[in-house]
Amino acid sequence: MHETSIVQALLEQVESQARAHKASSVQKVTLRLGELAGVEAELLVTAFDVYREQTVAKGAALEIVRVPALYRCPRCSREVHRGDFLQCPDCAVGARLIAGDEIVLERLEMEVD
Ligand SMILES: [Zn+2]
Questions:
Q1: In this structure, what DSSP letter does residue 53 have?
Q2: How far is the CA of 80 from the centre of ligand 1 (A)?
Q3: Gap from CA of 72 to ligand 1 centroid (Å)
Q4: How far is the CA of 65 from the centre of ligand 1 (A)?
Q5: DSSP state letter for 101
Q6: 93 Cα to the center of ligand 1, angstroms
Q7: Which residues fall within 8 angstroms of residue 106, CB to CB, at 6 or more apart?
Q8: Residues within 5 Å of ion ligand 1, judged at the Cβ atom
């Protein structure tokens, strides 16, 4: 399952950041998840609940911020939305994806002794 390896990588990141900040526990993990990332948010939460148990994040909640796909014209920077024809109406060049395929650890709330 794809989501399992994502959660394991996420928890490794959380643990190394917690160590770097000498945190004793993590309360909350905020993750940015793009709509084109190919990941089910519900499955991520389920996997997180299982794998957090043995980590510093065992009491942490996982908050997922969904990021819609956003395209932009590489020439004039005009935004082109998903569902539209993915081409700039002014420049007639193909729009480029600038957001919506990311899986990024955005924020950690930690307890430091
Ligand atoms: Zn343009």
A1: G
A2: 9
A3: 8
A4: 29
A5: S
A6: 7
A7: 30, 31, 32, 65
A8: 73, 75-76, 78, 88, 90-91
pLDDT per position in the chain (113 positions), as tens?
A: 589 999 999 999 999 999 999 999 999 999 999 999 999 999 999 999 999 999 999 999 999 999 999 999 999 999 998 776 899 999 999 999 999 999 999 999 999 98
Token pair in block for residue 1: 């399952």
SS (H, E, C) 79-97: EEEECECCECCCCCCECEE
Q: Write the DSSP assignment of 9-25 as a string of letters.
A: HHHHHHHHHHHHTTEEE
What pLDDT sits at residue 84?
Answer: 67
Distance 85 CA to ligand 1 centre (A): 13
Tokens of 103: 């899986």
